[in-house]
Amino acid sequence: MTDFNAAVDTLVTRIANDYRAWQSRSEFGKNDERADKFQSELTLNPGRKYMKITSDEVSENGRESSRVWGFVVQVDNDAKFKKGDILMAAGTTLAAISLMLIILLTGLVHNTLNEGWLC
Predict the structure, then answer these.
(1) What is the C-alpha separation between 51 and 70, in angstroms, rounded?
(2) b/e string for 79-110 if b means 16 or more Cβ within 10 A?
(3) Residues 21-57: tens digit of each pLDDT
(4) Strand, coil or helix: 39
(5) Which class for 59: exposed (0-12), middle (13-18), buried (19 or more C-beta within 10 A)?
(6) Please, are residues 39 and 16 in contact by the beta-carbon 8 Å criterion?
């Protein structure tokens, strides 16, 4: 496994852990079943330049929906970013290239949306 793949796996784990911590502080209280479901729904979708991280959900009535968490630069020759940079989603197929969140390969993952570190 490459450093990049290991870093992406760590990121996905941290996303799930951050969701679990956020959810336990919510008005609905801790719900391990929902947190486990969210973690199992996280999906990596590699593209030409960016890897899209989504949460693909199937509701109780069978409707499928997909929410984009963000994008990870997976090439060395991007014009604006380094391999491993994490970008916010501007939509389901577009990275918000002006809003870089952090650099993945440093080992520190900063979530500017929650103003905290994903650990």
Answers:
(1) 8
(2) eebebbbbbbbeeeeebebeebbbbbeeeebe
(3) 888 787 776 778 888 888 888 999 999 999 999 988 7
(4) helix
(5) exposed
(6) yes
The residue behind tokens 């905290």 is 116
Task: State how far the Cα of 119 lies from the Cα of 109, in Å rounded to an integer.
Answer: 7
pLDDT tens track for 60-96: 777 777 788 888 889 999 888 888 888 887 766 666 6
For 94, the 3-state DSSP assignment is: coil
β-pair partners for 89 = 95
Structure tokens at 86: 């994490």
- The burial class, CB within 10 Å (0-12 / 13-18 / 19+), for 3 is exposed
Q: Among the residues of the chain, which ranges form H helices?
A: 3-25, 32-41
Which token pair is 98?
């002006």
pTM: 0.70
